[in-house]
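// run 5 | inverse folding | seed 20
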């Protein structure tokens, strides 16, 4: 069984879906939530599920000593990014090579890179008059949205779509696929 740390920066809806998935799927266990602020609602989700959490500061994250201690303390061997906005440092990508995944709210390689998250991605997709958008689940390296693609799912972009309606479609895809793909990675299926 993989011991999973979920790194999340916001409200944690994907984190919640992942937690629920692994309550019945014994290929993994969400053992730790890592976030950037105690005020992030994902910390409340961690508390609601009695999951340990760790708050990062930017400098400590770059240096890594405390984070690595926490990851070791909880026997973490797989990292899932779920709305985590900071670039993952080389010390983590080396230690967890092939064992860090991210979900991006667009079809990479389009609309990826620094600053391309959430509403910014959806607005870019709408501005380009794309016929479809979707999600990309990918391995993580030390560049934004650059790791090997594992899985993609698509949705139509309608002429009437707004940033909010497109975001809703993307969230449905995220919740339908992310935990399942993480599970498949645990068992070597994906």
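// decoded
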């Amino acid at each position: 069984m993989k011991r999973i740390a979920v790194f999340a920066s916001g409200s944690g809806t994907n984190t919640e879906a992942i937690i629920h998935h692994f309550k019945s799927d014994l290929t993994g266990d969400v053992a730790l939530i890592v976030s950037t602020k105690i005020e992030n609602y994902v910390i409340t989700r961690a508390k609601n599920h009695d999951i340990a959490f760790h708050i990062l500061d930017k400098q400590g994250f770059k240096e890594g000593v405390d984070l690595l201690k926490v990851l070791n303390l909880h026997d973490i061997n797989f990292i899932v990014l779920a709305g985590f906005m900071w670039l993952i440092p080389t010390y983590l990508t080396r230690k967890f090579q092939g064992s860090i995944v991210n979900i991006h709210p667009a079809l990479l390689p389009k609309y990826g890179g620094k600053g391309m998250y959430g509403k910014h991605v959806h607005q870019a997709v709408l501005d380009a008059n794309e016929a479809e958008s979707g999600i990309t689940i990918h391995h993580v390296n030390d560049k934004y949205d650059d790791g090997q693609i594992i899985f993609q799912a698509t949705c139509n972009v309608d002429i009437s779509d707004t940033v909010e309606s497109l975001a809703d479609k993307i969230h449905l895809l995220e919740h339908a696929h992310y935990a399942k793909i993480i599970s498949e990675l645990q068992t070597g299926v994906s």
